[in-house]
Each structure stands twice: as C-alpha cells, then as structure tokens.
Design goal:
The protein is an alpha/beta fold and 703 residues long. It is 39% helix and 17% strand. Pfam families: Glyco_hydro_77.
Length: 703
C-alpha cells in the first residue's frame, strides 16, 4: 500500500530530503510526491515497503565507525543501554590516553568529556570502539600562513591548461599546445617576485587518458589522482624527451599544436601520451637510481587506490582499442564492472605493463605538481598553490567505479532554477551518498581531501554549499525535478578543519548560488573563506545599483573580480558576455541584446563613479573606452579581504572568459590560451602596472 503524501513527506524529511525550501527569490517551494519517490529510490529507500521508516531510523541510529568532536568541547555520541555513566578512554593517535566518564544525556546518547588534542583518536566506550576525530576550532588561515594577524595578501588565479611556455622549449620538452606543471612553476616564481602570496589553479584531477575529448576540469574521472596530460616529459627525463619527440616524428605536430590559440584536446592529448609512452618504454633504464627509488616509493604509498585507478585506465584503453566504445565502466562486460573482482585481477596480471604505464604517469604528475608547489614556496610565497576541488566526478569514471557503494551515480549535483539560470542546472556528475559517508566513517571524503591538499597550500571547494545540502537531480530528469538533500555539515566541516591544520592549508568555500540560511556565518566561524565577486557585491540588484564600498566588504571572504564562469573585467566593460549570449540564444526570456547593453551602460557608469569615490580613479573624468582594470584592482585591494585573487585574464586585460555556462562546444570552453609565455608575463607594461597596484596596496608579503 502506498504511503499518503503526508507520510511520504515525513519519510523524505527523515531521509534528509528538504521537502520545503526557499528559492533564490525568497519564495517557498515544496517538492512534489513523484520527485520525492524518485529521490528516495535513488537513496535506496523504497517508500512502498512496509516498515521502511522504522528500518531507516534503526539504520540511522546504528553505531558508526567515526564520530567528530571539536577541540576543548564535550561531544555527544550514540551509546546503547541505560546506564547513567559509562567509562570511556581516548587513545591518542600519537600515544598516551585520556580516561573519563561519559554521562547519559538522552536515551541512546551520552556526552563525552572534552578532548584538547586534535587528531584521529580511538574512542573506547563500554565494550565498543570507534574513531573520534577531534578538530581544531577553525581552519588554518591566511594569517597563519603569513604569520600576521589581519594579513591582506593577493594571488593569481590561473587556468593551468591556458599557460604557454617558450614555443621552442615547449616542443623540445614534449609539450603539446597546453599548459603543464613546469609552466605553472615558472608562473609561480614570477608572481612571487611581484609579491603574490598564492596561485590558485584550475582543477588538476585525473581525466580519461583513452578519451581526451573529455577535458572539462570540473568533470573529472577521479578526484584522487591527477591529470597526466599536464606532465612535462622533460622534467624527469631531460634531453631524452626531445629524443622521444624526434624518434616518434612528433616535432611538426607539436609545433603546430603549440601555435594554436585554442587547444585541440584530442590531437594534443594523443601527442603528449605518445611522448610519455616512448619514455615509459625505456623505463627504468632511462632514469637515475634516485628517480627509480622515488617511483617505487610512490607505488607503495599509493597502495590499492592507485592500483585500482591504473587498472581502470588500462581497461578503459583496452575497451576503446577493441571496440571503439569510449563510454565508461557501465558499458563494460559485467565481469569487469567490479574493481576487486577476479576478472579485473586477471586482466591486471595479463596487462601488467599497461597498468604500470598509468602508475608511471601518476608518478610523473605528482612529481610535477609537488615541484611547482615547492618552487612557489621557495620563491617566497607563504601559501603557494591553491588547489581546486571539483564538486563531483563523471559517473563513467574511475572514482565512480572504485567507490560504487559511496557515490550516488544516478543522481547528479546541480542547482535549482534561479535568476541567472531560470531552467536550473544538472551537471551530469556523481555526488557522495550522505548515508554511506557516515556508515563508512567518511573514508572517501577524507581521502579526497588529502589528495587535494597533498601538494598545495590551500584548496578551493567548488560549490561548497553542497557541504550542507546538495540539489540532486535524477539522471534524465529536468533540473527543476530535483530536490535538496541534507549532508552531515558539522562532521564534514570538522574534518576539513582537521585536515587543513594537518596540511597547513587555507580553505576557500565557493558559496555562490542559493545559499542556505546561516551557511555563511557557519563557514566564517569555522575559518573557511567565502568568495565575494565584484559583479555580485553590490547594494542592490537593479541596473545601476551601487557597488559596495571597499571598506564594507567582508573580512571573512576572498575578494575577486570574477570567476571562470563569468565575464572578465574587460569583457564585462565591453559587453562581450552579452554578445556571446545573444549569439548562442542564451539571453533571458523576454530580454534582448539592446536591453542588456542599456543596463550594462548603467552598471558601467556606476562602477566608474564608485571607483572615483574610492579614490582609485579620477572622480572628475568621463568613463574611459577601455576597461579601467588597474583601478578595479585597486578598488578590490582596499577591501579587508584576507586574500584578493586576480584571474590571470584580468591581469592581462583579456576580454574572453574561460567558460560560458549553458554551452558545451558552441563556445570554446576550457580551450583558450594566454597570448604570451609565462616567462614574459610581467614584462608587459600593463601587467606590471597592475601588479604594482596590488603590491603597493596590499604590501609585499614578508620573505
């Protein structure tokens, strides 16, 4: 017998689905019964099975392998029985222990005494044992990194693929017309010399080696491993990389790819992998003893997770070569869909050299990224690289294959309809299952955090709103046919703070969109920086509304001109984004290019006025034809934001944005390249002027 709508709503709320929610316009919304049933089914809850509510509640009350606590504060944990007091012991992860008494606070729960030592400790409670993750009260901060309270630093934001090296050296190194970790290292060193404290990098997660057509950095195969196409073959192998290029007859191909302004990912990916495979064919004989030892240590440290990812890559490549089918593991033979099954083991043994190739690639990528971070720090950057953690992974990829019990492969993260995306969004990715996260002791979440923090001084968490609730859309459904599902926000924030201090990395939460009530206050309290974008930081949402004065910006958020999904300063000033949206039919219903350009004229006049009011532009001169980029940067530099992040596109005055939401290949998303080499970036007079503005206003960090 089917549940009534009332009981269905109760079941959904108990399962973490937000039946009632408020949209971006402040209107109350209610999720319909059909959508609730679909989402519940994807969460493995059959609303029509008798007793499903009781079973779910029993599961939620079951003991978990990990609980979190905050340093110096009592913690409430489940505990069976009715004893008023229960003896407990905390075994510290680094030795020693703390004995205490847990006191009953309610049926099934006790309060533990406060623990003052952060870490992953073992809790012995009665006859039970579990992990107690004790977190610091906040994340590692910009002030901690700079050793200055109220520090105000600045950094660059870069799309790694867009970087250029010197053309001749790029071809000799085996580059294939897009940025690599060596280019990133060179840029970081140049930026450090101009006083930058950080370089924020587009995601470098593992993609699909057998299918370089999948190149969106926000739709990776795995967030545990790296994009091997960013490897610089000469970084380890030196002149042997040039020999591999020559032997493979690739010099002309690489030179042509290097000359392009838009990356040809399929050609470039094949060319880069051809060079790397030639080097692997000679490995380990073509490497020094220290490099071989480093490779072997990397294999041991990577363990089962590294082996599983390499096996995925090998099987995927084999399937593409055999059948031409480039889809992921859901279309493989059934016997290969289980990563720890006997058929996958047999395949790995028979194709051991191919599996080893993909491990070799990951080793080179890890060395390259670690080298870029080391160089940034050695050059004087107190933070260095800021990694970008994508919100999910491709459901056909390695992570979804290896973590099938922990991801919701049939529900995509997205966003409900709002004023910017009236149809809503479904990103076609996977999301973690909130129920499985808790049941598995957050192991998948922790390993993902550690992978992102391993070679960085900070991390930007894409769509950090998903830490509290995620808009999940069943595959094949319209974005509006989704629902918000709650996540264990407190536990996840505590784990982020704990890992942040262990790696000494700052944390930035991308909090743009429909923000839950109280979310920004919660992340600020936890020391996670939000993001304030110039275009949205205004005193109203009407055309010509004032831009917020620098002194009134938040001190708990990163300040930036724009994001990869929004127009650059020059593009906004020229209305380039409006022209693109008209060309591609993306203007809002009932709008027109002329109407939007008229509104932009009001906004442009207002920005120029407010720049003058702030003292960073002449107050008595008419607005210029060219975008006043240096004045805009001076405006943001005066805010109390601990970190000002300037996209490289704005440092260079570029008009085009990296990505245009709502498009796939009608706009050259993730393909644009910078106009000059990274070595000459700050030689440009305009770029130098803008860097001087930042250094003067924000100060050059202490060396």
């Amino acid at each position: 017998m089917s549940l009534s709508d009332h009981d269905l709503a109760k079941l959904a709320e108990s399962a973490g689905i937000c039946v009632h929610w408020r949209d971006a316009m402040g209107r109350e919304q209610v999720v319909g019964p059909d959508v609730l049933r679909t989402i519940l089914a994807e969460l493995c809850i059959d609303a029509d099975v008798p007793g499903c509510m009781e079973g779910m509640l029993r599961e939620q009350g079951a003991a978990a392998p990990l609980y979190t606590a905050q340093q110096g504060e009592p913690a409430t944990v489940p505990c069976a029985g009715d004893a008023v007091q229960v003896a407990c012991r905390v075994l510290y992860e680094d030795g020693g222990h703390l004995d205490g008494i847990a006191r009953r606070c309610s049926p099934g729960q006790v309060v533990l005494p406060a623990v003052d030592r952060p870490g992953y400790h073992t809790l012995l409670l009665g006859d039970a044992a579990c992990t107690l993750a004790v977190a610091p009260t906040r994340c590692f901060s910009v002030g901690d990194a700079l050793h200055r309270e109220h520090a105000r630093a600045w950094g660059l934001g870069v799309q790694l693929y867009s970087l250029r090296r010197d053309p001749l050296h790029a071809v000799e190194a085996g580059s294939a017309g897009f940025g690599d970790f060596t280019a990133l290292r060179h840029l970081a060193e140049s930026a450090a010399a101009r006083g930058a404290a950080a370089v924020a990098v587009s995601p470098v997660h593992a993609m699909f080696s057998a299918d370089p057509r999948r190149y969106s950095p926000y739709a990776p195969s795995s967030r545990l491993f790296l994009n091997v196409l960013h490897v610089d073959p000469s970084d380890v192998f030196g002149a042997q990389a040039l020999a591999a290029v020559a032997a493979g007859g690739l010099a002309a191909e690489l030179a042509e790819l290097e000359s392009l302004d838009l990356i040809d990912w399929p050609r470039a990916g094949r060319a880069k992998l051809a060079v790397l495979r030639a080097l692997y064919d000679g490995f380990p004989g073509n490497a020094g003893a220290a490099e071989v030892q480093d490779h072997d240590a990397f294999v041991r440290a990577g363990g089962a997770a590294l082996q599983a990812h390499a096996r995925y890559e090998a099987v995927h490549a084999w399937r593409v070569a055999l059948t031409g089918e480039q889809s992921g593991w859901q279309h493989w033979p059934v016997s290969l869909r289980t990563p720890d099954g006997p058929e996958v083991e047999r395949f790995a043994q028979q194709h051991a050299r191919e599996v080893g190739f993909h491990i070799f690639l990951q080793w080179l990528a890890a060395r390259g990224l670690a080298g870029a971070q080391s160089a940034a720090r050695a050059a004087g950057m107190p933070i260095g690289l800021i990694a970008d953690l994508a919100v999910g992974t491709d459901p056909a990829g390695s992570h979804a294959w290896t973590r099938q019990q922990e991801v919701l492969a049939s529900l995509s993260p997205g966003a409900p309809p709002d004023i910017y995306n009236p149809k809503g969004q479904a990103w076609g990715l996977t999301a973690f299952s909130p129920h499985a996260l808790r049941a598995q002791g957050y192991r998948a979440f922790i390993e993902m955090l550690r992978a992102s923090l391993a070679h960085a001084g900070g991390v930007r968490i894409d769509h950090a709103l998903g830490l509290a609730r995620m808009w999940l859309v069943p595959h094949g459904a319209a974005p509006s046919e989704g629902a918000y599902v709650r996540y264990p926000f407190t536990d996840m924030m505590r784990l982020i703070a704990l890992e942040s201090w262990r790696y000494r990395t700052i944390v930035i939460g991308e909090n743009l969109g429909t923000v839950p009530e109280g979310f920004n206050d919660r992340i600020a309290q936890a020391g996670m920086l939000g993001i304030d974008v110039l275009w949205f930081t205004r005193e109203g949402n009407w055309p010509g509304a004032p831009f917020r004065a620098p002194r009134d910006w938040s001190a708990q958020a990163l300040a930036t001109t724009t994001t990869h999904d929004l127009p650059t300063v020059a593009g906004w000033w020229e209305g380039r984004d409006i022209a693109w949206r008209e060309r591609l039919g993306l203007l809002a219903e009932g709008s027109s290019r002329a109407a939007e350009q008229a509104e932009r004229a009001l906004d442009r006049a207002r920005l120029w006025h407010d720049l003058g009011q702030a003292g960073v532009a002449p107050a008595d001169e008419p607005e210029p034809e060219q975008a006043p980029v240096a004045s805009v940067l001076g405006f943001l530099a005066r805010t109390p934001a601990p970190l000002l992040l300037v996209p490289l596109e704005d440092m260079q005055g570029q008009q085009e944005q990296p990505n245009l939401p709502g498009t796939v290949d009608t706009h050259p998303n993730w393909r644009r390249r910078m106009p000059g080499s990274v070595g000459a970036c700050f030689d440009d007079a305009h770029v130098a002027e803008r860097a001087d503005v930042l250094a003067h206003t924000r100060g050059i960090h202490e060396r």
